[in-house]
Amino acid sequence: QIQEAVDPTTIFARGIGGRAIEIIAQKGLSLKTGDYTTLKDAIDNLDRLEDQTKSCGHEH
Length: 60
Prior knowledge:
The protein is built from three helices and three strands, in the order αβαβαβ.
């Protein structure tokens, strides 16, 4: 639904499960993650965000 509404190229997430990561990759979108709790923190640290292509192994 989000993809249809705003057509993003990148999704930002803090905790995300393996299935969601798969879906995002299948859609051709980039996934960036970091241990930030607010959007401001994520924006202030854009250069520190990491690409995530596989599950972290935790249940989300």
